[in-house]
């Protein structure tokens, strides 16, 4: 049990980085997972060169969803929007560094989905999901 | 004598170990494990006498038909039905409830009528009624539970007015564990002329069931929660009601005659069983009932009262645990849902899995109840015939360990 | 090389003898036998990793969920679906067709609309449409077969007018064996804006299937006719249509959120799968698809053309036998129905059973077709991968014997 | 195969006894089994003492249904209506003297059911069946 949640996950959970809301912001999106009640909002401030000057998250949820959001925020600071679009499921799982089962996958990927929906301006994550994984 | 160790030897899955830790399976409320006798019954059918049922004039099919219908009779007797013709095979309790909703509900409910359910219903006994209400214009009313998780009988009584045409409620909550006073609720509903639909998904596997004594009109339950294969469930219905209802699914086997422009229906129960049924699964459910009968359902209930009593006591002494539902094991079944400080139930389930302990985390298909309780999810340990106090201890010890990891 | 003897060794049931006579199983059109690999897949799940799927955060449930969804993907690929999200698990082809009838039909059909079916449909693809017609006020029209048992394309074309909103037809008749020109029929139906529902219960087990090439809108089929366990079937549907359709059965697992007064639906395909699914049976169907893929569906079809050709030739030379449907094995599948002089099919089936030969007798759930043919019943031998010419010979010889007993 | 249908069944099938319609008659009833197309009508002439003076059957069907009807007719001649009511499923199966599977049971018992429906004046055999076999 001790190894399951590595110290860095628990650290990000207990001391989330870049947690809060951002004013002003250029992008804001929020989603919640009704099954577990996890809720995440991501705010971005993107400058004219397409660089993310600042990114923050808010909300609540399990250790996996909160830690993965916190880790994602660290990654986003100063990144170009184009590069942010390329962040993949695999990148998130690498951040976490522990095996994630199918149910927890939704927790792990919630922040990534909120990010992508925010960038692409989709209201319905499910449409995105639908398109993404036909196989 | 209820010999749990002997019972455990009948369940191949329970012989497993992972990293030297034996499996502690505490998710029977979601689905139970299967004894060797059920696995063997399934295997024997496929190897020795598999064929489609009812119409085949050859030995395999006659044997398969015979075993299939024998299973129906066993299951009908298990719930003390007046006739095996009242026992309809479905995939699961959900389909059973939908059958009533579509076939009785759409036909008999109208604008101005009320459907009454309780606030602790599983989605399977809530969403179909929402849909029927939407289609017929009937109203859906929700009877509340009290603060200690029992049905609020005063409120229930006050909501029974002549507009109520159907009352649907669970006999045992899969979250609170609550056993509802079904006989009294049914008698009161009948007084105002309402029909009663009992969700027995949690109760039939765990309690002696007698539909004649209950005097309910419909009873829905699942095989997979009572040692049977997946893919099989049942609806029991009062014959006089079933006889008047239009069929639900239509096609082969449920017909008497078919012409291009019309069709006539088969006798009960086949009128409600369209197409090739879940033959082997029904036979397996018959074997599951044999197994439970050999234990005796009174003994099964007694075992669970004892084990649940032990669990309620042991878990409530773990710092941070808050148990949902009544603390009186006589008034509840062995589904024990709880919260654990700030630790999210998903995290808790993952941590316990690392100890080879299987519990459930989430809203357990009872989201409105969780909303009412002001929580988005809970953890749930649920017990069955093969569980024992030592497993409760392992759960409790692991909770302590989890608290340390999370420095709760 | 298609090695029937090797295949036969994979099927435990076929090793049986009764009174020294090996079983000749000629009723695969009703339901097929199961290979050891499918039986093993079922057994392994119950013994090693059984649990409820989708919500469990522990190893057993994750493994069961994974195998369950892997099976879905295998089956979706088997019929060349564009996405696994288009593949919905049901109990059988009958439920699949009812799902379309209830969810698409009740929602989209109105008075003045026409539903077009053919006169060789199985009751499963006729009675649900009669019911939808009755409820919506739509009309049911019947496209005829020609004297040699093929679909009358001229008549079909003439019946396609703009009032036709839905065309439902079998890709392979379970009585005449007829393979319908589905691609052409679908293209014609689409020209007038109708949607198309293909009954693949007989075709999917016996032919390569490609829903993208067919361009149909729905395809219904059963697992138990294609080596899979009983209790499992599938509906494939075009995603854009499924996305717009209301759910059919409601309850757990098919929801996204539930509140007392409303609910929102889960994504495809789960929106159409309410309650605990037939978990182990779906996994078994995945194993069945593995088995068929290893043989290759082109080879399966080739084997059946050869065997059916042999049977048509051999049986038509038995005095008194009159075969229903076309004599061209390229245009039909391996379900060969026939009459035999004055001997009632029921008597014939009983006589053949005494020789350990299993055929079917009756109207094979196609009573209107039998009415049209002027007979109340027929005998039917139907073939699958494990049948061989010697079994056709035994059938033919036993027919001769039966004629002598009845002094035909 | 040769032993399956005993000679007496084939004999009754080929040379049915008391086949035809009866005029005058006091009772007449007809039923058909849509699954196999079997059809049987039974005519009775019952006198004031409640004795069946004559019984005939007509219709068509498989060897089992026809032979069992023919055998039943032999039994009925001169029997009291009260005794006829007591003829059971077991009596019919004894007449036939061969094992009858579940599907063929409907063939074997069709004539008995027509008889009972005729005597009790039921239009719907199924009601009778329903009541009969709750277990
Ligand atoms: C109280 C209750 N009702 C209904 C159901 C639905 O059962 P199934 O999923 O077998 O249809 C369940 C099972 O989760 C349940 O606990
Ligand atoms: C052509 C056809 N359609 C539909 C069905 C119904 O299949 P099931 O009984 O598995 O629902 C059958 C099987 O008998 C069939 O042959």
Could you explain the architecture of this structure?
The complex is a heterotetramer, with 2 copies of chain A (135 residues) and 2 copies of chain B (408 residues). With 135 residues, chain A is α+β, with helices and mostly antiparallel strands. Chain A has helices at residues 7-14, 63-76, 81-85, 89-96, 102-120, 125-132; strands spanning 27-33, 38-46, 52-60. Chain A is globular, with a radius of gyration of 14 Å. With 408 residues, chain B is an alpha/beta fold. Chain B has 14 helices and 17 strands. Chains in contact: A-B, A-C, B-C, B-D, C-D. At the B-C interface, helix 2, helix 3, helix 4, helix 5 and strand 11 of B face helix 2, helix 3, helix 4, helix 5 and strand 11 of C. The structure holds pyridoxal-5'-phosphate (2 copies). One pyridoxal-5'-phosphate (PLP) sits between chains C (92-94, 122, 124-125, 170, 174, 199, 201-202, 222, 233, 365) and B (252, 275-276).
Descriptive keywords:
heterotetramer, A: 135 residues, alpha+beta, 3-stranded antiparallel β-sheet, 6 helices, 46% helix, 19% strand, B: 408 residues, alpha/beta, 7-stranded mixed β-sheet, 4-stranded antiparallel β-sheet, 14 helices, 17 strands, 17% strand, binds pyridoxal-5'-phosphate
